[in-house]
Structures are given as structure tokens and as C-alpha cells.
């Protein structure tokens, strides 16, 4: 009897083993497991009944979050300038152009994340990349236009508010957005590396030559801005010296104001350079075979420039602060003092 029982148990074990071999190994909960082969020849087990893991690059998540913050910040600026009739001077028109470009750049970063992980299409990828190129180009070009405007407000202070200045500002805006749109359309119209992988740059699907053109354009804009800000510093210091000669001495208030103005200019150009220069340089020296982490690490600070722009150019402005107070509080309290600022105020 004992021998029969043992034989029956061995038969049951043999049948169970055969079933496991057919359906795959089982864990303690009865979930089928798939056997995978490792590099050293040994096998290991992996759950096969689980849903496929949806891998998301953390860098893309950070870029998407940055895009959301950028879009929210600049949307407020655009709304304030659009709904405030008093903010129609050339300076605020240029600030509105900058905020619009940064708003579109933020939206582009969000769309890039959505289309990359939800709707995967070469056509949509080209359109998204072109949209981002146009938006960031318009942002950098608007910064250049603001720099030119500040220089003109100091160099031609007596004729700054003439119709000639307004015409000049409108022409700068047309050139800014026209060039940005053309550069954004280049990858969509065929200047891409979809058909020739060897010509791809560190930012696919842009070609190396396309990215080199964009980098060269940035270096040109940066040099012009640096030159103009140096001239602005000289004008500010010369004005302070003239005031000192008229009053026979330089008062503490004028000295502090001059020092603050020069420091602000240094912060503006320093922030712009620190944000964009690493990415622009890497676009020239980088190669497709380099780890993508280098691309993300240099691109992320460049996007932060669009996050800092509304703080430097909009939220520090007294007129925009007053408009924000009216917009969010519904009224204007006279206890809060606001001083009207001119474009030459830095």
C-alpha cells in the first residue's frame, strides 16, 4: 500500500512538472513566468503576465515640467499686456513679443513630450521640432530687439517717442517673426535627416548643417547684444559723469543708481549667455554618437532662459506690476506706490 501511494505521488509530481514546462514557470501566486537568457549563459525569470513597462526618460519629464512653468508665466504677461490699453508703447510691444515667443516655446515642450510618448509619427515629430525652433528663435530675436530698443531710448532720447521709432519697432518685429518662421519651416520642408541617419545632429531630426546654422545665428545675436550693452553701460556712465559735473559732485543716490543699472545689465547679458552658450557650443562640437545626457544637460538651461525672461523684463516693471494688481485684486490701492519706467530703466 505504501509503495502504491509513493508511485501515485511520483506520477502526480511528473504531471505537474509537465504542465509547468508547457505553460511556463509559476511563482508562489500562480503567475506564469517567462525564462530569459542572461549574457553569462545562465537563465533568470521575468514576469510575463504583467503589462509592458512604459519607459519614460526623466529628462523629458523635466523638460515637460519646465515647459508648463514657462507657458504659465508668459501667458500671464501676454494677457496683461493684451488687456491693458496703457501698455501699448514700443517697449511693452517688444516685451509682449518676447512673452509670446516664450509662451509658444513652453507649449512646444509640452507638445513634444505628448507626441513623443503618445502619438509617434515622423510628420508630427518634424512639425514639433520646427515649432520649437521657430519659438526659441523668436525668443532670442525678441531679446535682441529689446536690447536695440533700450539702446535707442538712451542714444536718441529726445526723438525716441516719435513715429519713426514706432515704425522701427514694427519692422524689427516683422523681421524677428519672419526669420523665426523661416528657420522653423526648414526641417518641415525637407532639411532633415530622416532619409540619411548619418547626417543627423545631436537634435534629431535636425541635420548637422541646420543646427550649425542655428548656432552661428545665436553667436551673432549674442555678440550684437554684448556690444550694445557695453555701449549702454558707457552711455549710463557718461550721463552720471555729466550730472556730477553739473552738480560739482556725484551724489550717493546717483552713484547707487548708476551702479545698480550697470549691475542689472551684467545680470541680463550674463543670464542670457549662461543659459544658451553651453547648448550652442555643444551643437557645434557635439556628435550623434555622444551620450544623449549631454544634449539634455545643455538644452535644459537654455529652456530656463524662457523661464527667467518674464521675471527680468516683465514682472520687475512697475507698469506691469500695477496692471497685475488690478487684474488679480480687482482694484488699485493708492497706498502702493508705482513709478512709471522708461525703456532706459534697467
From TrEMBL:
<dbReference type="InterPro" id="IPR017452">
    <property type="entry name" value="GPCR_Rhodpsn_7TM"/>
</dbReference>
<feature type="transmembrane region" description="Helical">
    <location>
        <begin position="91"/>
        <end position="118"/>
    </location>
</feature>
<keyword id="KW-0812">Transmembrane</keyword>
<keyword id="KW-0325">Glycoprotein</keyword>
<dbReference type="GO" id="GO:0038036">
    <property type="term" value="F:sphingosine-1-phosphate receptor activity"/>
</dbReference>
<keyword id="KW-0675">Receptor</keyword>
<feature type="transmembrane region" description="Helical">
    <location>
        <begin position="124"/>
        <end position="146"/>
    </location>
</feature>
<keyword id="KW-0564">Palmitate</keyword>
<dbReference type="Pfam" id="PF00001">
    <property type="entry name" value="7tm_1"/>
</dbReference>
<feature type="transmembrane region" description="Helical">
    <location>
        <begin position="167"/>
        <end position="191"/>
    </location>
</feature>
<protein>
    <submittedName>
        <fullName>G protein-coupled receptor 6</fullName>
    </submittedName>
</protein>
<keyword id="KW-0449">Lipoprotein</keyword>
<dbReference type="GO" id="GO:0007204">
    <property type="term" value="P:positive regulation of cytosolic calcium ion concentration"/>
</dbReference>
<dbReference type="InterPro" id="IPR000723">
    <property type="entry name" value="GPR_3/6/12_orphan"/>
</dbReference>
<keyword id="KW-1133">Transmembrane helix</keyword>
<feature type="transmembrane region" description="Helical">
    <location>
        <begin position="211"/>
        <end position="230"/>
    </location>
</feature>
<feature type="domain" description="G-protein coupled receptors family 1 profile">
    <location>
        <begin position="73"/>
        <end position="313"/>
    </location>
</feature>
<feature type="transmembrane region" description="Helical">
    <location>
        <begin position="59"/>
        <end position="84"/>
    </location>
</feature>
<dbReference type="InterPro" id="IPR000276">
    <property type="entry name" value="GPCR_Rhodpsn"/>
</dbReference>
<dbReference type="InterPro" id="IPR001151">
    <property type="entry name" value="GPR6"/>
</dbReference>
<keyword id="KW-0472">Membrane</keyword>
<feature type="transmembrane region" description="Helical">
    <location>
        <begin position="262"/>
        <end position="281"/>
    </location>
</feature>
<feature type="transmembrane region" description="Helical">
    <location>
        <begin position="293"/>
        <end position="315"/>
    </location>
</feature>
<comment type="similarity">
    <text>Belongs to the G-protein coupled receptor 1 family.</text>
</comment>
<keyword id="KW-0807">Transducer</keyword>
<keyword id="KW-0597">Phosphoprotein</keyword>
<dbReference type="GO" id="GO:0005886">
    <property type="term" value="C:plasma membrane"/>
</dbReference>
<keyword id="KW-1003">Cell membrane</keyword>
<keyword id="KW-0297">G-protein coupled receptor</keyword>
Amino acid at each position: 500500500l505504501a509503495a502504491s501511494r509513493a508511485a501515485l505521488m511520483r506520477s502526480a509530481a511528473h504531471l505537474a512538472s509537465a504542465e509547468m514546462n508547457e505553460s511556463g514557470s509559476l511563482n508562489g501566486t500562480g503567475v506564469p513566468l517567462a525564462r530569459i537568457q542572461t549574457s553569462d549563459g545562465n537563465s533568470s525569470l521575468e514576469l510575463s503576465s504583467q503589462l509592458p513597462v512604459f519607459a519614460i526618460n526623466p529628462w523629458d519629464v523635466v523638460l515637460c515640467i519646465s515647459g508648463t512653468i514657462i507657458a504659465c508665466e508668459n501667458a500671464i504677461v501676454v494677457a496683461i499686456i493684451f488687456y491693458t490699453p496703457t501698455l501699448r508703447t514700443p517697449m511693452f510691444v517688444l516685451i509682449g513679443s518676447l512673452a509670446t515667443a516664450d509662451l509658444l516655446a513652453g507649449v512646444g515642450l509640452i507638445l513634444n513630450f505628448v507626441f513623443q510618448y503618445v502619438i509617434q509619427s515622423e510628420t508630427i515629430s518634424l512639425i514639433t521640432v520646427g515649432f520649437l525652433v521657430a519659438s526659441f528663435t523668436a525668443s532670442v530675436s525678441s531679446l535682441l530687439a529689446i536690447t536695440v530698443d533700450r539702446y535707442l531710448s538712451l542714444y536718441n532720447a529726445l526723438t525716441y517717442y516719435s513715429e519713426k521709432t514706432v515704425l522701427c519697432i514694427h519692422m524689427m518685429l516683422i523681421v524677428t517673426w519672419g526669420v523665426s518662421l523661416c528657420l522653423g519651416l526648414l526641417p518641415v520642408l525637407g532639411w532633415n535627416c530622416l532619409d540619411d541617419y548619418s547626417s543627423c545632429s545631436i537634435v534629431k531630426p535636425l541635420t548637422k548643417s541646420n543646427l550649425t546654422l542655428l548656432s552661428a545665428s545665436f553667436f551673432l545675436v549674442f555678440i550684437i547684444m554684448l556690444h550694445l550693452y557695453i555701449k549702454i553701460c558707457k552711455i549710463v556712465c557718461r550721463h552720471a559723469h555729466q550730472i556730477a559735473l553739473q552738480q560739482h559732485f556725484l551724489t550717493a543716490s546717483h552713484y547707487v543708481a548708476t551702479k545698480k543699472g550697470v549691475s542689472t545689465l551684467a545680470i541680463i547679458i550674463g543670464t542670457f549667455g549662461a543659459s544658451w552658450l553651453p547648448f550652442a557650443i555643444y551643437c557645434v562640437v557635439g556628435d550623434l554618437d555622444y551620450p544623449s545626457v549631454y544634449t539634455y544637460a545643455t538644452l535644459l538651461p537654455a529652456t530656463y532662459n524662457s523661464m527667467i525672461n518674464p521675471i527680468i523684463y516683465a514682472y520687475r516693471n512697475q507698469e506691469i506690476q500695477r496692471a497685475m494688481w488690478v487684474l488679480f485684486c480687482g482694484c488699485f490701492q493708492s497706498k502702493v506706490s508705482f513709478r512709471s519706467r522708461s525703456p532706459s530703466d534697467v
